[in-house]
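Notes from hallway chat w/ T.B., transcribed later so I don't forget. T.B. wanted the structure written out for a chain they're using in a teaching module, and asked if we could keep both sequence and structure tokens in one place. Agreed to drop them here.
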Amino acid sequence: MTIEMTDRRRHILKLVIQAYVETSAPVASEHLVRRYGLNVSSATIRNELACLEEMGYLTHLHTSAGRIPTDAGYRFYVEHLLEQPALAPHEQQSIRTQFHRSMTSIDQWIHLAGSVMARHAQNVSVVLPPRAAVARLRTMHMVSIHDAMALIVVVLHDGMIRQVTLGLDVPQSQVELNQIAVVVNELCRDATVGQVRQQIEAYEGMVPVVRHVLELVYGTMQQYEAALNNDIRADGILEMLNQPEFAQTERVKSLLELVQSGQVLVPHLPRVTRSDGVQVIIGNEHQQPDMREMSIVLARYGLEDQIVGVLGVVGPTRMPYARAIATVQYIAAVMSDLVSDLHGEPRGERAPHESAS
């Protein structure tokens, strides 16, 4: 006989998850009655807990121990028991103020986004910088360091800036460097990596220094494009160490390696970048065995189909999902506004959050 998910069972499942997230200890029926003032006996709660366990939403480690949520229980909680998560108005205002006080630099915004998410969600944060699908040159500048050395500044359409030094066989003044930059920009403005390569191959009788600059621009863009999905910024290591699940040093080391290698985000990037709202991946829903006890809350930000980044938090399945979802959702909205302002384009309405299945 199929067990029905009644309103009372839904409420008890929600309370079990809330209690387990707070305490990291298995939840007993007596604790629920005492902690939440339920108007039913402990025996009745035990029967309901047994039903929830039979439905696959709870489990227990020992015969006499309390219950803990399963991955299926967390999934049901995220999809059916959470009210629309949102940060308090004063928290939203505080976050906005922090961002608007920072300089208009993508790198600074990324660092701040990671720090704010880690602090508010009390877990590790991950941020993939906003990227165009294809690296495209906006402009380049040359700055004289001294007679035999120049700094090449490559500015891409997604707002990222890369710098590389150029050794000069013949000394060049700043005026002469400016003239070289004008030539390169006329040839390659808005060009992709492949188009820059074509200019190098097609330009006959090119002045050697111009060719050298073009080759450095090409190499810089090529390296940047190759590293699009590997430039993941992580924060919140101290917050992670406060979680009892990471009391063992080896577990912390393992998670850090996953985060820094990109294995945490890369499998989910196609789905997240195509979806509106917040995506939640829980426990056994991960492809990687090392992530089966972890959950990730992710969202995209930026300009849809143009310049898109991904951000989120990583933590144990015993995660405060409402807080994590609200934090990721709000930071993604703030970052989208900032990227839109940086590129001078209006931003459309964001869809409400939805969870990954």
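Follow-up for T.B.: The chain has three domains: 7-81, 89-132+229-343, 137-226. Might be a good example for the class.
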